[in-house]
Fold this sequence. Notes:
Elements: H1 6-18, H2 23-42, E1 49-54, H3 58-73, E2 78-83, H4 92-103, E3 107-109, E4 121-125, H5 137-148, E5 154-158, E6 175-179, H6 184-187, E7 197-201, H7 209-212, E8 218-220, E9 244-248, H8 255-267, E10 272-276, H9 282-288, E11 293-295, E12 306-309, H10 317-329, E13 334-336, H11 339-344, E14 356-358, H12 362-369, H13 373-378, H14 380-391, E15 394-397, E16 403-405, E17 411-413, H15 426-440, H16 445-466, H17 476-479, H18 481-491
Parallel strand pairs: 1-2, 1-4, 2-3, 4-5, 5-6, 6-7, 8-17, 9-10, 9-12, 10-11, 12-13, 13-14, 14-15
Antiparallel strand pairs: 15-16, 16-17
Helix pairs in contact: 2-3, 3-4, 8-9, 8-15, 15-16, 16-18
Amino acid sequence: MKILTAAQMRAIDERTIAAGIPGLLLMETAASRVVEFLERRYAPLREQRIVVICGKGNNGGDGLAVARQLALRFQPASLDVVLAHDPAEFQGDALANWKMLTLAGVHTAREIEPRMRAATLLLDALLGTGLDGPARGCALDWIREINKGFPAARIVSIDMPSGLHEEGESVRAKATVTFTAPKLEQALPPTCDRTGELHVADIGTPRAWLDQDPALWLNLIEPAHFARLLAARKPGTHKGDFGHVLVIGGAQGKGGAAAMSGLAALRMGAGLVTVATEDSERPAVTALAPELMTQAITDDAGDRDVLAIGPGLGTGPELASLAQRIFAQSALPVVVDADGLNALAGTAFRGPGPFRVLTPHPGEMARLAGCTATDIQADRVGLARRFAEQRHVALVLKGQRTVIAFPDGRVFINPTGTPALATAGSGDILTGMLAGLLAQWPDRREAATLAAVWLHGRAGELAAQAAHEITITATDLLRFLPGALHDAARLSHLE
């Protein structure tokens, strides 16, 4: 699923209209998709008290069309349309929908009447993707009314929460029905937090157009990206068919980190997992999971299929040198995290070769890129893309809405995750999940990377729902991995 900027979305709409699909038809289809969402989520609509607040542009036209369809199809308990502008200011398709609404006999007002504040459902059609900068003046006043003036209402934004801009106030929606593709502001923090549940509706734009322009190579991870990886295993398979992972880490006092990565690789389906750690840490490894094998720390990969290096590795010069050699010389896929990343900071690694996945948080990324964490947060997508292209690596830049960039310039945003993941060892679990999937799918490495990140985030969400996000520990995530797998299979229509 592509993620578009507002300007890209406007250009695609203009191209769609120029190709022969009238704007009025697009608006009517968009309204139908919104009504279908409302019918699924808030039925029975005939019992709802609905207020629709409309601006004068195309977003307002969408809202007018939604109101007309609701009136004609469902006859809600009450339905009021509040106009933020004089109808004399309406033009084009918005004006056409205003005329049709009037003919349908729907009540409209220019002000919020006291009885309207008892609404149970409020539809935000004030401002769409055409906003340039933060909302100001009357628009800002309306946004504040929507957020605070309807205490019993669930707010559903049409296409875009009005005013959505990182520097200003915006509507805080319970849900947003957007059209054709998610918009950048809906996919990335801090503005994604105001979008609520995001539902993407197809309104007739040819999907092939979204794949033609490399500038549109920004995507939202969906389970469909890795559905093949979730298919049932064939009868007669054995552990040797699912790869052997070697986790290298666990210096003195840090054996638990490497052990958690090893256990995560097993739970993710790897056939065999060995943890290379200090002798003193091996009891901690086998105590966590007796299925894990152990060995001394070495750069000899033996007959393994994937290497994961860094969890609890330590920062001594010999271990840093080991990480650098493995990264540069191993013929196997390598996942690098934690102290492995610190070992690479300041080195001029570059060049095509075996698959490499780096999994930094912003602080580690700053050290790798030679900048500050503030610089990273200011342009996570752009920096991740440039780094992956220049260094020929797959980059998993962790954080809220983790960014995954590949060497060919494609970038993915992960929609799953929760603050519950902000706990010691969460990254070690992700490293193991990545390695476990890569071991099983040597010919589907990019899909395996996307799957691990999505499933890790979803397991965190399920864990937080079952308990409380502040109580979750890293190993808890593995208890909820089966639920995450079932969710992914359901969403990709495998169940």
